[in-house]
Amino acid sequence: MGVRGLHGFVASSCPHVCTVVNFKELAERHRSQHPGGTPTIVVDAMCCLRYWYTPESWVCGGQWREYYSSLREFVRTFTAVGIKLIFFFDGMVEQSKRGEWVKRRLKNNREIAKIFHYIKSRREQPGRNMFFTPSGLAIFTRFALKALGQETLCSLQEADYEVASYGFQNNCLGILGEDTDYLIYDTCPYFSISELSLDSLDTVMLCREKLCQSLGLHLADLPLLACLLGNDVIPEGMFESFRYKCLTSYASVRESCDRKGNVILAVADHISKVLRLHQGEKKLEEMLPLGPNKALFYKGVASYLLPGQKSPWFIQKPEDVVTLDKQVLSMSSDPESKQEFPMCMDSESKQKLPVGTDPEFNLEAPMCTNTEVKQEDPVNVGPEAKHQVTVVLDPEILKVARAQHVQAESYLVYSVMSSGEVECSNSLEDATDQALPSQAFVYRPVRQRVYSLLLGGGGGGSSTGPAVKEWFVYSGNPLRQPDLVRPLQMNIPGGTPSLRQLWLSQEPGIQAQRLDTLLACFDLSSSREELQAVERPFQALCCLLVYLFVQVDTLCLEDLHAFIAQALCLQGKPTMELADLQLDHIDPRAVQLATLLVRGLTTLVLVNGACGSPWEMADFMPWHLFDGKLFHQKYLQSEKGYTAEVLVEQNRSHVTRFHTLKSVVCKACGKESRPIVSRRHWRPHHAAPFIVFFGDTQAVQAESCHYFQDRVNKQVSHGCS
């Protein structure tokens, strides 16, 4: 994340850039300087997840009660000293950063493979040095913070820009995160989350002014430096030869610095002593070897300009716009300046061309030769207007979806409707376990029905909605291109209601329609009565379990017992008791089953939001339904043949509920011709592998054996192209 090599350089060569500060003292000083104001810290939540996740266990699916307690303590500590926190989460992956996103996901795959190898060889969890965040952590953290009464926002572009902008425009006390891009933005002070001591509220402040003094630069030079070194927009290799030339001509090489440190010093020296001589007189492309990467480089530098800021490295035209060949790109973030974006219409779809269609520059603004359309400043209309294609034409519905997205009240809904492109990061899945399919495939039919609902292809007849681009991580997916996934028609008695009905209607009976739609997304309309009879919060869990067991025929009765028993035993169990729970050993299959369930809960967040929230979000938050170690314990016990009474810890009321929930799931699965049998009664075919085939198209076909093949492939083959 951030600028290549800058973190290590600051730590080793410029330690004076880092100053220990105390948040309580800073808050008191802020109040004295701004009477009546509240000291506010903008938190880059994505940078803080690893810090917040303090539970010892992490491979079993997540210790969600412990994690929730950790978040609550974090919030309480800052609230106690009068500091307000504003949390920002990544809501979109910008096209210019997709390559970096893919690179990190593939690296994560290699790390996950090492984790499973360790578990199989030692039957225990690896050390913290191999720590990987539990699946769904970022998604559920949003809802946890909202439940704790915190202002939580989801970005419409990369979160770091919105974090820096908010801090800059609202005179905030500072930014809390772990991203060297915050040393580049000219915004409020930047504090390190990794150096934070919650007991004392001491942390390290990284001072960009001191960094500039060390490098002989001005604050306005830092975006140029960042792009020449490489960041999330500019690939590191793009200016490798340029950096080498700077280093060879640099006369003040420090022996105390490593090669990367001296490269940074050399590039900064070139900026201050060579480029600055012609600043404002020559264009950057006349001074730097930009070549065909000119537009991308300009875009990279401009991406650091916050609202109202300009760069002295851009020769300003009267309109504050620099034209690059046939592309128009703003060189200013001044809200008073107009932004120009040439748009063009696809003769077939009659929609704006998708982002990144320019093969040379891969800019957000599409390239065309026909009529130009002038748009308002993206600061006013929302930054997503710069690079997204709206696929939903009802402005009121899109406005509602956008508001819910920004307020972190939904998941993926706005991405589907605004750009037709979604992503899901890595999950703790064993690539060598061919008996269990990836969660990406298991829940794809659900997503396809949601796409039908959101994109208007579900109003009777065959689905005609556009394909959605899915960047989902699973074994064997090189992520060179997205999977093109078409909507799948839903079967709802009386037809599929419109989004206006589901989201805006207050008519009697609409809540029943919302529930009907949710169940139809899981293809469980026939089990409505059974599921409705289940008490909260187990209604959502049973829905998810029925779907899982219908889809995956390698799940057995022992698995069902473990899922139900842990959910029942979790109710009322103290957090410390969960933290103290010890496991005999770690089973890799149980790790992957936990992943399947938790990713199912994130899918429920998507479906519930798309259907107008027929269920309370709290009903499928994991701290109410799932605990990783507790599930693992019940799984190991169930594998040994423990009775229901032992599984639910001899609690009589739990025994009754256990049999009730088991009966609901088994009956619903029976309606789908899916008997749930004990592993001891399995026939050999259950050990058959799960195989992924890649065809000539961008879409993915998934196949396995027997029931899973009959169930999933039939739906995927209808839904993918």
TrEMBL record:
Record has Nucleotide-binding as a keyword: no
Principal localisation: nucleus
Protein family according to the UniProt entry: Belongs to the constitutive coactivator of PPAR-gamma family.
Transcription regulation keyword on record: yes
SUPFAM superfamilies reported for this sequence: PIN domain-like
UniProt keywords, alphabetically: Activator, Differentiation, Nucleus, Transcription, Transcription regulation
One annotated GO biological process: peroxisome proliferator activated receptor signaling pathway
Identification of the protein by name: Constitutive coactivator of peroxisome proliferator-activated receptor gamma
Function: Functions as a transactivator of PPARG and ESR1. Functions in adipogenesis through PPARG activation.
One annotated Gene Ontology cellular component of this protein: nucleus
Localisation: Nucleus
Assembly with partners or alone: Interacts with ESR1 and RXRA. Interacts with PPARG; in a ligand-independent manner.
Alphabetical list of InterPro entries matching this protein: Coact_PPARg, PIN-like_dom_sf
